[in-house]
Amino acid sequence: MDTYQTEEEQVERIKKWWADNSRSLIAGVVLGLIGLFGWQSWQGQQQNHALEASDAYQQLAQSMESSTFEAAIVLAEEIDKTYSDTPYAALAGLQKAKAQLETGDRKAAVESLEKVADLDGNKALQHIARIRAFRIRLADGDANGVVSDLESVISGENGINPGQFIGQYEALKGDAYRQLGNVEKARSGYMAALRDATLDSQLIQLKLDDLGPPTIVDGTETVQEIEK
Question: Which residues touch 36 (CB under 8 Å, ≥6 apart)?
């Protein structure tokens, strides 16, 4: 005899199974739909968020072009607050520092650049911000502090990898030591910078030549000229 003797018995069993399991099945389908539409909704929100950040940055760029620097600073701060999870936060930080320089607030400009340098994200923007901060500090007479920080960066301390920017850091080190009057260490920095083909080698060579000939000790140059 068949397990299900009649069609009616099969129907009754199906009805019973549905009664026992329908809620969990419906719940699963509903959760699946919620997940699908929730994901799509989240993606839409992220896209809108990125577009809003882009629009805000365009306003900032326009303020910079029109030299309304105070307004630019306010816009940059708003981008940093509202869109810190987008790449525009770092770009806005660079613009903010430029605006602060234009308004004469050099200390604030350095702080803005150092904040960008510490952000997670685009490594190139981090290096650009750090190098700009070093240049401002050097121009303001903080050669000793800049040398100390440059040595840390160049040696790779604190997990910072100079990468393709090593030449720019070395050139800055040359500038800093030159400002401190240490000609030979300045020469060493410039010579190291010349090894980086991405730099303006002509400018670095002019700085190197301006230092004069290397010091001679017992008939031997203390620093050998880089091969050209």
Answer: none
